């Protein structure tokens, strides 16, 4: 096998003659291959500086054709590149471990698509600038093919420019011995009062906002809608998948089965507060028992747990401690939850599967309007819809009423506290 490299200026007649000869040889010799390197005349002079002045009319004509073709190809490539506009992803509270684990998940192609490039913007306080720079450097070193760019920001005025997706990760460290819960709610409201108008002003009109983190996830989503009235409520959600995944893992350990076979666990209410894990619609796939069926064959999960005492005591106890456990996690689980919900939002959730998401209520399941409440939804065609076809019993309805009361109280405190505050006036994010 013979391989010849032919290099030259696009307007060089001698390169044109060599190119013709190389093409002829490659067409007639089975073991002959040619690799052409065509350079613009300006670039050729810079890199090589070798020029011949022996010219002929035919060679000059071919050289001119080569140059025009090269210019046209370059123009087409540039136009194609400009057509590929990367999605603009903004992440607030970006110095948190959740963000660190989230970046490679967003850029691996599974969330937005294998041909969709993204640009990630990390937003946090000025005190976190060094951490942000470290994250940016490490992400760049990964050389992820779909990550067009990644940048850090601490200037609030430049936040959310042309944002397609905003992921709100800001958290407050709860310690009721230091200050009251009302003061923490005030902190959350203050942050959202800064973010929401900027999202309205700088982001795209169809921007999607996801609230996640370890504290006040529902409240953050609600305050974004409250102080950004032009942001469509359908485009703001709170992530409950963290609780779903952790509960499925607990059930799988109890049943000694694969966690992927546990489906349709519903998280109701205040995601990072008082919530209710509903197993009445949960199903079990691929369970090793006396009755087997095809891949889509399932059994009601509750019928497979014969120890009812475990459900009413140990599972509830495990759920009570889960909140404190989530606050101790390094960020891998919440990051996976955010990536999963985004993937469903863009590509649809699996058929017949339930996804729990905090959404702006409109009276579904008799939950009062105007709060962000976690309930079962399905994602399809780039949107979500509440699965209102589910029937709930009186006991569950009573539980939902209590959960809604807590969220209403949070809302009232947030609105009262914000009314007593002065408008934000700085040019940096303050901690």
What does this molecule look like?
It is a single chain. Helix 7 links the parallel strand 7 and strand 8 (236-239). The protein is an alpha/beta fold. It starts with a strand and ends in a 12-residue tail after the last helix. It has twelve helices and 16 strands. It is elongated.
Précis, in short:
With 431 residues, the chain is α/β, with parallel strands linked by helices. The chain has helices spanning 13-28, 41-47, 57-83, 97-106, 129-141, 181-202, 217-227, 241-255, 301-304, 308-328, 332-347, 394-419, and strands at 2-9, 32-39, 87-92, 118-123, 147-153, 165-168, 208-211, 236-239, 262-263, 266-269, 275-278, 283-285, 298-300, 355-360, 372-380, 383-386.
How do the strands and helices of this protein lay out in sequence?
Elements: E1 2-9, H1 13-28, E2 32-39, H2 41-47, H3 57-83, E3 87-92, H4 97-106, E4 118-123, H5 129-141, E5 147-153, E6 165-168, H6 181-202, E7 208-211, H7 217-227, E8 236-239, H8 241-255, E9 262-263, E10 266-269, E11 275-278, E12 283-285, E13 298-300, H9 301-304, H10 308-328, H11 332-347, E14 355-360, E15 372-380, E16 383-386, H12 394-419
Parallel strand pairs: 1-2, 3-4, 3-6, 4-5, 6-7, 7-8
Antiparallel strand pairs: 8-14, 9-12, 10-11, 12-13, 14-15, 15-16
Helix pairs in contact: 1-3, 4-11, 6-7, 6-12, 7-12, 8-10, 8-11
């Amino acid at each position: 096998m013979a391989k010849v490299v032919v290099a030259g200026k696009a307007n060089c007649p001698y390169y044109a003659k060599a190119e013709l000869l190389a093409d002829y040889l490659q067409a007639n010799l089975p073991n002959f291959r040619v690799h052409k390197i065509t350079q613009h005349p300006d670039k050729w002079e810079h890199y090589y500086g070798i020029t011949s002045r022996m010219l002929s009319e035919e060679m000059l004509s071919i050289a001119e054709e080569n140059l025009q073709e090269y210019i046209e190809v370059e123009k087409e490539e540039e136009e194609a590149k400009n057509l590929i506009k990367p999605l603009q992803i903004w992440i607030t509270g970006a110095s948190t471990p959740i963000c660190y684990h989230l970046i490679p998940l967003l850029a691996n192609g599974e969330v937005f698509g294998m041909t969709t490039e993204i640009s990630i913007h990390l937003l946090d306080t000025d005190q976190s600038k060094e951490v942000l720079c470290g994250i940016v450097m490490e992400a760049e070193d990964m050389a992820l093919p779909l990550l067009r760019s990644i940048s850090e920001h601490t200037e609030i005025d430049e936040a959310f420019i042309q944002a397609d997706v905003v992921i709100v990760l800001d958290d407050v460290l709860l310690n009721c011995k230091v200050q009251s819960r009302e003061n923490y709610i005030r902190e959350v409201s203050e942050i959202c009062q800064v973010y929401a108008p900027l999202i309205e002003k700088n982001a795209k009109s169809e921007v999607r906002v996801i609230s996640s983190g370890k504290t006040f996830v529902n409240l953050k989503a609600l305050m974004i809608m409250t102080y950004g009235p032009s942001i469509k409520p359908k485009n703001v959600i709170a992530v409950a998948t963290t609780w779903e995944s952790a509960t499925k893992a607990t059930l799988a350990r109890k049943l000694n089965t694969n966690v992927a076979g546990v489906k349709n666990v519903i998280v109701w209410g205040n995601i990072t507060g008082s919530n209710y894990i509903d197993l009445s619609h949960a199903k079990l796939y691929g369970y090793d028992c006396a009755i087997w069926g095809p891949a889509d064959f399932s059994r009601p999960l509750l019928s497979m747990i014969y120890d009812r005492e475990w459900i009413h005591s140990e599972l509830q106890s495990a759920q009570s401690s889960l909140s404190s456990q989530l606050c101790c996690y390094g960020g891998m689980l919440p990051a996976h939850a955010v990536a999963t919900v985004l993937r469903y939002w863009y590509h649809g959730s699996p058929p017949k599967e339930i996804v729990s998401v905090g959404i702006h209520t409109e009276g579904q399941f008799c939950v009062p309007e105007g709060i962000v409440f976690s309930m079962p939804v399905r994602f399809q065609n780039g949107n979500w819809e509440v699965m209102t076809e589910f029937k709930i019993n009186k006991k569950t309805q009573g539980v939902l009423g209590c959960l809604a009361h807590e969220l209403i109280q949070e809302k009232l405190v947030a609105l009262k506290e914000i009314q007593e505050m002065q408008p934000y006036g700085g040019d940096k994010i303050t901690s």
